[in-house]
Write a structure and sequence with these properties.
The complex is a heterotrimer of chains A (195), B (341) and C (247). Chain A is an alpha+beta fold and 195 residues long. Chain A has two domains: 1-41, no CATH class; 43-193, no CATH class. Chain A has helices spanning 108-120, 143-159; strands at residues 2-5, 23-25, 32-34, 40-42, 44-47, 57-77, 94-102, 127-128, 135-136, 164-187, 190-193. In chain A, strands 5, 6, 7, 8, 9, 10 and 11 form a seven-stranded mixed sheet that branches. By secondary structure, chain B is an alpha+beta fold. Chain B folds into three domains: 1-40, no CATH class; 45-242, no CATH class; 247-332. Chain B contains seven helices and ten strands. In chain B, a hairpin with a 5-residue loop joins strand 5 (78-109) and strand 6 (115-135). Chain B is flat. Chain C has 247 residues and is of the alpha+beta class. In chain C, strands 5, 6, 7, 8, 9, 10, 11 and 12 form an eight-stranded mixed sheet that branches. In chain C, strand 3 (21-23) and strand 4 form a beta hairpin. In chain C, helix 4 (198-217) runs antiparallel to helix 5. The radius of gyration of chain C is 28 Å and the shape is elongated. Classes of the chains: A alpha+beta (195), B alpha+beta (341), C alpha+beta (247). Strand 1 (2-5) of chain A pairs antiparallel with strand 3 of chain B.
């Protein structure tokens, strides 16, 4: 076991933070990197928060995974095979989409809800370069796991179509994942968007 | 080569404090953020022993009376030894997500004996968090393989005074086994008889080591030594062995053959009486009669010792069938009881 | 308790088998114990005394698969204590931890071929450990011979001594031997005098067929069938009680 000081792999400045997280944000050069296995700089975006919302806001991390898919065969019982929904670019039986995978710890129902909602209607936001003093939640899901979740989200989209899915032969290729921080207001009924 | 490595903050040289399982710490002197590379260990907790020696003994009063144990057990059993131990368990949380699609088949038959099979298509989403545990050492003859309870007051105060079993199994192998189990449970919950499509992912969420307090009680009965174990948090009996009673063994086989034989006779008679009867009902009746008799037989044959908990030599009851692999074999459609009875 | 010297201040630091991180009581340094480069000796102390072991043997001998009355008539010839060695390796194989248990001593003792490290409160085996005169079986296979063959990178390797009772007994003019773990009382049985299932099976099959026939007869003559069923119940009960007690 070896103890190392956490330094930004880009500018080599030490990082000071109290958040126990596997991703580290350099306040100096605004580079985000991940540790565990190898140390790697990751692409990220921080969505600007809506300043008119006064309630306490928190940044939640998401993996945004760019996926290319091809459906070779889909067999459905009791429904008609319809055209792909419009949000999937390319239409037809192949195309691409952004899958949003919640990366912080949350219960399984919220997890599925957020993944589906954000993937089906991708959020539109302007970006900013820092967290603006807002708390950010630690990342618990690795980018490798995010690919598994992307697969789940993709099949869910297919299963949610009319008819009962019986078989699906498809290829799904996930490209490099990017981390997206989205601001939320935490309420009793779950997180509410604040961008 | 030295086996000990002092841990210091590489920035200021101050001594740092790390708990098992922590990967990121802050230096308490200079505030630097430090990352521990390599095997980070596992977050470890020990539950506080809540049950005292007297209660561990008293719980047998009720247990000795239950479940067809020797009738004179309460009178004859002498508790000889009661001691506490800590047992290590891997505790693993798993999130299982995915889809299982397929169909169920249902067979209907009308009064004319025509049968009709209907297919009911199903698409089932699997979306669940599971928590499992597995003992992290060889439990020997304690009859404990998993935790019944994940809640307890965490503290290490008793830890030094109570003998603690060493963890000797691998966390990653435990994780793999438990991943398989989570997958199987998820499949079971989806209830799809014939699967045509399956995409299920297992995401491990948290791994920790729980040291769980257990009372081991040894008692004698007619020159024989038996054991039972008591949950040190809830006070319930986890596992145990106790002498059986030949009277209950013979009552079991008498009742089993009577009921089993008459059910079988009834189903055969129904077939003989009405020509339009569906023969599958007779077959089901015969099978039910045979299964009841077989279950009674296993208790008759092996009920001279009453076993509760995760012992491998339990042969009767549902747990016994499970141990023999009969249940899984039946599910897979191969039944071969030769050599197992 | 075993100790090593604190790499910072030199004071002795006590450590237990399960410790990965320990704190020096003098300079309060946090010390990581790197077990990858050394071979350790661990021992599981005896937790069960001889009287209890004999009682455990009698309980085991009374089990349903053992010959009838083995518990009563097995004559115990000798009970010997010893520590039996086994190697325990923890390896990092492609980033995942794997445990390997390998033999350290060749043996003719029954039941010790299925290798395992019995659970127990392990301690470091050093000069402070008092074996109380119990024989420690010498390992005749070298630890190093495994290190080259095992996959992955070393995390920890240890020779573990676990306590056993070797029990010799005579039954029906034959000698038998069994080994019992002195940590949990588990019996590592080799071969033992067995009990036949045939009498039990006979009662079950004859009973089942008799009731089946009588159930059928009920359709023709209910009263006669009822009487026969009543008699069969008594006969099956009597026969099974005799078998359960005596066979």
């Amino acid at each position: 076991m070896k103890v190392v000081q956490v330094r930004c792999p880009n500018c080599s400045q030490p990082i000071y933070s109290k958040i126990k997280d596997i991703v580290f944000f350099c306040e100096n050069c605004k580079v985000l990197h991940i540790r565990g296995g190898e140390t790697k700089v990751i692409d990220y975006e921080i969505a600007d928060f809506n300043k008119t919302i006064t309630a306490e806001k928190k940044y939640m991390p998401f993996w945004r995974v760019w996926c290319n898919f091809t459906i070779n065969e889909s067999r459905v019982s009791g429904g008609t095979f319809r055209k792909m929904a419009q949000f999937m670019r390319g239409g037809g039986n192949s195309g691409s989409l952004f899958v949003f995978v919640p990366a912080s710890e949350m219960d399984v129902a919220t997890f599925k809800q957020l993944a589906m909602d954000l993937t089906m209607s991708p959020p539109r936001y302007s970006t900013r370069l820092d967290f603006g003093g807002l708390q950010r939640l630690p990342t618990k899901i690795t980018n490798g796991e995010a690919e598994n979740v992307s697969d789940f989200v993709f099949v869910t989209i297919q299963a949610d179509k009319p008819g009962i899915l019986q078989d699906l032969d498809y290829d799904l290729v996930c490209q490099e994942a990017r981390m997206v921080y989205l601001p939320f207001v935490v309420t009793e009924s779950g997180p509410r968007p604040a961008w | 080569m030295s086996i000990s490595v002092g841990l210091n903050c590489p920035a200021c040289g101050g001594a740092i404090q790390v708990a098992d399982g922590e990967q990121v710490v802050n230096c308490e002197y200079c505030g630097s953020m430090l990352y521990l590379e390599g095997d980070g260990g596992v977050n470890t907790i020990a539950f506080k022993m809540k049950v005292d020696r007297g209660a561990a003994r008293a719980v047998s009063e009720e247990w000795f009376r239950k479940d067809w144990k020797a009738r004179d057990l309460r009178k004859e059993a002498k508790v000889l030894e009661i001691y506490p131990i800590y047992l290590p368990f891997w505790s693993i949380k798993m999130r299982v997500i995915g889809w299982i699609c397929g169909y169920d088949e249902r067979t209907y038959s009308d009064s004319k004996g025509h049968t009709r099979t209907e297919r009911i298509p199903k698409e089932e989403m699997v979306l669940n968090d599971y928590q499992y545990s597995e003992i992290a050492c060889d439990p020997g003859d304690l009859g404990i393989k998993r935790l019944r309870n994940f809640l307890g007051e965490s503290e290490f105060e008793d830890f030094g005074n109570i003998p603690t079993y060493e963890a000797t199994t691998s966390k990653d192998e435990a994780m793999k086994r438990i991943g398989e189990e989570a997958l199987n449970d998820a499949r079971g919950e989806a209830h799809v008889q014939h699967v045509t499509f399956e995409r299920v992912h297992v995401l491990p969420r948290a791994l920790s080591m729980i040291y769980y307090p257990i009372w081991v009680v040894r008692y004698g009965y007619r020159e024989k030594m038996y054991i039972y174990t008591v949950d040190g948090v809830s006070g319930e009996i986890i596992s145990g062995r106790a002498p059986g009673d030949p009277l209950f063994q013979s009552l079991a086989i008498t009742a089993g053959t009577t009921i089993g034989g008459l059910i079988a006779a009834g189903s055969l008679y129904l077939m003989a009486a009405s020509e339009t009867m569906d023969p599958t009902i007779t077959l089901i009746g015969l099978a039910a009669g045979a299964i009841i008799t077989f279950g009674a037989y296993m208790f008759f044959r092996h009920g001279s010792e009453i076993i509760e908990g995760d012992f491998t030599d339990k042969k009767y009851g549902l747990g016994g069938l499970d141990e023999m692999g009969v249940v899984s074999d039946l599910l897979k459609g191969r039944i071969d009881l030769g050599g197992r009875i | 308790m075993a100790t090593f010297n604190c790499p910072k201040c030199g004071a002795p630091v006590e450590f237990d088998v399960k410790d990965r991180l320990v704190r020096c009581r003098y300079c309060s340094s946090e010390i990581f114990i790197d077990k990858s480069g050394a071979g350790f000796y661990y021992v599981l102390p005896f937790a069960i005394d001889e009287t209890t072991i004999i009682g455990t043997f009698r309980r085991w001998a009374g089990g349903s698969t053992k010959a009838k009355d083995l518990d009563k008539y097995a004559h115990i010839v000798s009970v010997k204590k010893s520590f039996f060695p086994v190697y325990l390796f923890k390896r990092d194989v492609d980033g995942s931890e794997q445990v390997f248990v390998e033999p350290a001593a060749s043996t003719t003792l029954p039941g010790l071929h299925s290798l395992k490290v019995p659970g127990g409160d392990m301690v470091v085996y050093d000069k402070n450990f008092d074996a109380k005169g119990v024989d420690m079986v010498k390992p005749d296979i070298d630890m190093a011979s495994y290190l080259d063959k095992l996959p992955g990178r070393a995390k920890e390797q240890a020779l573990v001594y676990f306590p056993i009772y070797v029990l010799d007994y005579a039954f029906a003019e034959k000698n038998w031997r069994t080994v019992i773990s002195a940590t949990s009382g588990e019996v590592f049985s080799g071969d033992f005098p067995r009990r036949s299932s045939s009498a039990y099976m006979m009662v079950a099959i004859v009973g089942f067929l008799a009731f089946l026939t009588e159930g059928f007869l009920a359709a023709v003559d209910p009263l006669l069938a009822l009487a026969l069923i009543g008699i069969t119940v008594l006969v099956v009960f009597g026969a099974s009680y005799f078998v359960a007690r005596r066979m």
